[in-house]
Predict the structure.
Amino acid sequence: MAASVDQLSFNAIIEEISRNFATIRDVFALLGALYAAKCCIQSAYNLYRAVKVYVLPKLWPKQDFRTKYGEWAVVTGASEGIGRSYAIELAKRGMNIMLMSRSHAKLEKVAVEIESMYDVQTKIFPVDFNNHDCYERVESALSDLDIGVLVNNVGIMYDRLQYFLTVSSERLKQIVNLNIMTTVMMTRMILPQMVNRKRGAIINLSSGACVQPVPAMTAYSAAKIYTDYFSRALGYEYYKDGVVIQSVQPFYVSTRMTNFMKPNFLVPDADTYVDHALKTLPFTTRTFGYWSHGLMGFFGNLIPEWLFFWSTININVPIWNFFVPERSDEQSKKVD
Ligand SMILES: NC(=O)c1ccc[n+]([C@@H]2O[C@H](COP(=O)([O-])OP(=O)(O)OC[C@H]3O[C@@H](n4cnc5c(N)ncnc54)[C@H](OP(=O)(O)O)[C@@H]3O)[C@@H](O)[C@H]2O)c1
């Protein structure tokens, strides 16, 4: 008896479901249509962003940054790599350049190179940003300058991809100092004059290594997401004051940091990278800077976190450690 009552109620449920089947099907169809619409809008937006950030800037005529932002550009970590290339590209756009890093000789070489190519002034200021008390000296060196562009470029990575506990405490301190502290202190120093003049641009070098948290680059990747968040929120605070803050997120670029990997379409040399990245400044406040890095960032964001972590440890670590052999502490400290 109980079984047939159960059977009856089961049949009633099935009948009810069948009666409402059309409605349920319609609801699912509506959900499907909404999801498809979301995907279409998202794809159209991504395409629009790709054209705006990677195509339009290539076609746009070079701008005179001196008129647009101010007379001087300050570049940290300017003696080589990405920083040196930013200094050259900014000089190409009419700006005088203040170059900062540790090595007097390397800075002088870049300054001479710039002045021989462009009709601009340069100044050099040798400084070790690992010294916390350097900022007063830096501030007085900059006090007379009308600074229109600040490139917070200085930064270091581990010497190879490695687990957190195998990195020395000294190196971890430097990673936090150079990637975070220097950006914050230089911005605190220079932003007020930009706000007063209602113009200026601050370019902060974040990294593709923070599209997701990256094991074996843990402290570096976390430091670079700090730079990205810092730039985005600060940009919102000060855009009404005419100051643009841009977060730049390169993947691999052939520099000393990556042991001068052979350049290719995925790993541009610093000049090629910066030529692309700087052109994006009037178009976006956040960029991977180079078209193939844009594609890597797009796919990097899509990969589920567990797969990203797994592939970092099992694919990225062997590749990096093959191309970028371990440097001794002495080599990485070396100032030529
Ligand atoms: N290369 C890449 O694949 C890549 C990828 C993503 C993000 N980035 C970021 O891009 C930025 C530049 O990277 P890069 O590859 O051009 O680096 P790099 O070739 O190693 O150059 C680093 C620059 O920083 C200076 N520097 C190092 N330690 C310093 C200190 N304690 N005080 C003052 N200056 C110091 C160096 O000059 P001195 O030796 O004369 O001091 C040099 O000019 C970094 O923030 C990095 O994290 C690079």
In short: DSSP finds eleven helices and seven strands in the chain. The two ends are 94 Å apart (CA to CA).
